[in-house]
Amino acid sequence: MWSTWVCGCNYGNRKHWERADSRWDRVCHIPCEVPIKMGFFAEAGPIQIFVSNHLIPDEMEFQYGDMPNYTTSDGSVKIQKDSEVWLKIIGTRFCIGTIKDDFLGVINDPATA
């Protein structure tokens, strides 16, 4: 059975690594690192995961400015640097993730904290 370590989630001061079998998708709680027009990057330990703008919900649009982000049209949800998101890893060869599914998306917005 082929399996790899793909998901590192921060619980307090210790890292929790989740063993992922390549046959199943894994959902992780990961902070957003770099939002760009083509999507955003998130890091899970040593692994960098890319979430394409095609895998972000359609109602979210990229906003330029001092703090680039993805925002809903009403401004209630924002993905920016250090926002915590639930994402699902859908490809382990190039570490591709998605937030365009049920129960995925922003958990914590640092701007509101």
TrEMBL record:
GO molecular function: nucleic acid binding
SUPFAM superfamilies: Nucleic acid-binding proteins (SSF50249)
Keyword set, alphabetical order: DNA-directed RNA polymerase, Transcription
Start and end residues of each S1 motif domain: 37-92
GO cellular-component term (any): DNA-directed RNA polymerase complex
Family matches, as Pfam families: S1
Protein name: DNA-directed RNA polymerase II subunit RPB7
Source species: Prunus yedoensis var. nudiflora
